[in-house]
Amino acid sequence: MATRLAICLCAIAVFQSCLVPVLSKQTYIVQMKHHLKPADYATHADWYSDHLQALTSAESAPDSILYTYDAAYHGFAAALSPEEAESLRQSDAVVGVYEDTVYSLHTTRTPEFLGLEAVDGKWAGHGLEELNQASQDVIVGVLDTGIWPESKSFADAGMTDVPARWRGECEAAADFNPKIHCNKKLIGARFFSRGYNMMAAAGGKKESKSPRDDDGHGTHTASTAAGSLVGNASLLGYASGNARGMAPHARVAAYRVCWSSGCLGSDILAAMDRAIQDGVDVLSLSLGGGSAPYSRDTIAIGAFAAMERGIFVSCSAGNSGPAKASLANVAPWIMTVGAGTIDRDFPAYATLGDDRKFTGVSLYSGGGMGSKLVDLVYNKGTNSSANLCMAGSLDPAAVRGKVVVCDRGISARVDKGAVVKEAGGIGMILANTAASGEELVADSHLLPAVAVGKKIGDVIRQYVKTAKKPTAALSFGGTVLNVKPSPVVAAFSSRGPNMVTPQILKPDVIGPGVNILAAWSGAVGPTGLEKDTRKTQFNIMSGTSMSCPHISGLAALLKAAHPTWSPSAIKSALMTTAYTLDNSNSPLRDAADYSLSTPWAHGAGHVDPQKALSPGLVYDASPDDYVAFLCSLGYTVEMVQVVAKRPNVTCARKFRDPGQLNYPSFSVLFGKSRVVRYTRELTNVDVSGSVYKVAVEAPKNVVVTVKPATLAFKKVGDKLRYTVTFVSAKGAGASRNEFGSITWKNEQHQVRSPVSYSWTRV
After folding, report:
1. DSSP per residue over 673-731, as a string?
2. How many CB atoms lie within 10 A of CB 739?
3. Which one-letter DSSP state was computed for residue 732?
4. What is the pTM of this model?
5. How far is it, in rounded angstroms, from Cα 69 to Cα 46?
6. Active site residues
7. Highest taxon of the source (predicted)?
8. Is the pLDDT score of 60 beyond 90?
9. How many angstroms separate the CA atoms of 247 and 362, rounded?
10. Which residue among 121, 140, 725, 761 has its CA within the 20 to 30 Å range from the CA of 261?
């Protein structure tokens, strides 16, 4: 469907509810002072309903309330008029009243690429089979577009009984029968649409109320995180082989919060609230909006409650790269995941009439064009958007029977191919512009099509303009493995610096997010277009939507191996063991222009699950530490209470600088002072008697001193602190930003923290 949001390489956008036609009522999220509930009310829900009715003209207050929140948030979502919302804001029992927000989706070989096929490998005393067995007790909750339960990726062969602690369920719908569609693998399936229905009433598309995924995105992400092993998987012959999730024996609980026009904050919060109560161990959210203060960030607020209960929360960083400061989901208690390539490619070729042959990528699976050259055209249309091949822009008389060059941008890549085909074109060369640089993303187009980078695109565009009779032929090379260099940071992956809290370096890591094969919905073709009638059990997609569930699944493995570790410890293990050299032993590069990547693009680096399972040391942080962090941001006590949901917060304890949080990376801001000093604490998760020495990499204009330079841990679980002092050289402010690292080493481990340096805020 043309309006679907699962096309992952769209810009992240947050659309306030005022963008839809104004109704007399719209959805508001109301935060209450939970502890003020009078004793004569049996439940908070009863109190909320009476309070709403007493303060507003909402005579049907119970019907006005869409959700009552408990675990993730103290309050409710309700359909209110602006006047009723303002009346609630005046109440002493109300913390705040906020308009609902629309979030968007951030839309196989990866187990081998990540080293998860090493059956003989021993990780922290755990063999793969032992880990697989333990991971059956781990439950991964996925908030997305729902689930296609018939997929083989959710088969439960060989799985043990559902953990007795599980409190979730599969909800029945006209097209979803819990007795048939759920099993020991897919143990939960719920849907949350009340917020979306309010927006749909204003002119949006109404959809069936069901956990069933008619989009494909949710099935893809869930199977990436924890899909069962499926043999002979492919997308119409591409990427053929075994498909499996990162934690193939973990359980899956699907929470449908996204619909054709987006994902409403009220629905997301309700799903997080329910997932916490259901008993998930990991929450995976491949969606987001723009940056906002944590007290106004629905996902950050829900994630804080999850973290307090020991739940690891992984979120996509967004697809707004390579622009700087484009990140989403930057709260330090969230794992913020960027995207990189893997060592698999799908080459395709454009041969021009002057015998020049250029390599691009494609997932086209049809009959092809043969070797005969045909006419090649560019910007032949009825309006100024013909170069972009926008709907209705091409002149059929000018493109019929020809290959059309289309500039990438504005509309979806697969939409452009459909426009060319509809106008009578028989092939397409999709050419990048400066916005996408040299990044190549393969698509399963409806006609022969090859995607090329900006440099090749410029050459082809010039050829069309200058040749007397420009011609081209397109051909396809199938699947190629062991591609070098890889990984490469995806150009679309959103970048730092972190504009909400510049003292916290984000993203945290990158994971596989380009051309990822995973399970797909039977309700939609691989392009997601309504005119695409092809059906496939698996699809190849790209986006930080794809990298996020990789990390969610790896977190499930770490949870299985180390059930007592906190979410912060798991995050630390994944970050401090990440690598920054590609498979050609060179520093990671950026697909935008193939320059060297930086921690603002790749964070701590690319995840390495084998090393993460035995990291040696971890940077841990408690919920109280995160409260102290919030207090250090200059927030009022009320703003801290919005996030932490603690009535007795006083901010008596706070950091002198938000960067004092015990985080596995450093973001150093030189302002009025040329000296920045932080203290960190490391916990020994290795063996007794472990000794580590520090190694520092720093730019020439910064002197870094670490004291002590040696840490000797007597026992497992011991905690030791060190202080690092950063001193900027005089006049170094001319340097806009620099990068380095601090690494604690012994013969077995390297516990590495990236460091970013900024002299002025971007």
Report:
1. -SEEEEEEEEEE-S-TTEEEEEEEE--TTEEEEEESSEEEE-STT-EEEEEEEEEEPTT
2. 17
3. G
4. 0.91
5. 12
6. 144, 217, 545
7. Eukaryota
8. no
9. 29
10. 140
